[in-house]
Amino acid sequence: MKQKKPRSFIYNDEGWTFMETLIVIAIVLVLTASVGFVAVNSLDNARRASAQSQIDSFCIALEAYYIDCGSYPSEEQGLSALRTKPVIEPVSARWNGPYLYKNIPEDPWGNPYLYTIPGRDGDHYGIVSYGADGKEGGEEKDADIASWEN
């Protein structure tokens, strides 16, 4: 009796050529870079939104401070008067804080917020973050974020 040969499968052992490998690596790099650029842009927008949100919360706390004390904190007292009772004059006997639940943070770029009395254009106060570059003025990610721009 004649034995049957086992059925064999034909495999293509050639694999990828060096050129095909380079093309795949190039495509992966291009896709990774494009995702990275989108992520960086989103991060800048998130930082700006965070700074605006923090400034808005300072404004609300300053209004509560004003209702209790009859005036806004002086520039010397600064925004820290919203968290702890000021020791620099004028100290109000009606201080009923803290008006913020957390310590005054730095802006999202690691710089302190600037608090001024009086504010710009006749406002009672002003609060500003100078953006990514930490300098007054600028455009895009370096643009200032201010309480008077709400």
What would your notes on this structure say?
- With 150 residues, the chain is mostly helical.
- The chain has a single domain, classed as 2-Layer Sandwich (Glycoprotein, Type 4 Pilin), CATH 3.30.700.
- It is 35% helix and 6% strand.
- The protein has one helix at residues 18-69; strands at 114-116, 126-129, 145-146.
- The model has no long low-confidence stretch (mean pLDDT 85).
- Classify the helix fraction into a percent range: 25-40%
Low-confidence stretches: none
What would the principal axes of the Cα set say about the shape? elongated
> Mean pLDDT score, rounded?
85
Q: Provide the CATH superfamily.
A: Glycoprotein, Type 4 Pilin
Distance between the termini: 95 Å
* H-E string: HEEE
The first-level CATH class name: Alpha Beta
Main sheet characteristics: 3 strands, antiparallel
Strand content: 5-15%
- Please state the structural category: mainly alpha
Q: Radius of gyration, rounded?
A: 30 Å
Strand order of the largest sheet: 1-2-3
**How many DSSP H or I helices?**
1
Which terms would index this structure?
single chain; 150 residues; mainly alpha; Glycoprotein, Type 4 Pilin; three-stranded antiparallel beta sheet; 1 helix; elongated
Give a summary of the structure in a few sentences.
The protein is mainly α and 150 residues long.
Outline the secondary-structure elements.
Blueprint: H1 18-69, E1 114-116, E2 126-129, E3 145-146
Antiparallel strand pairs: 1-2, 2-3
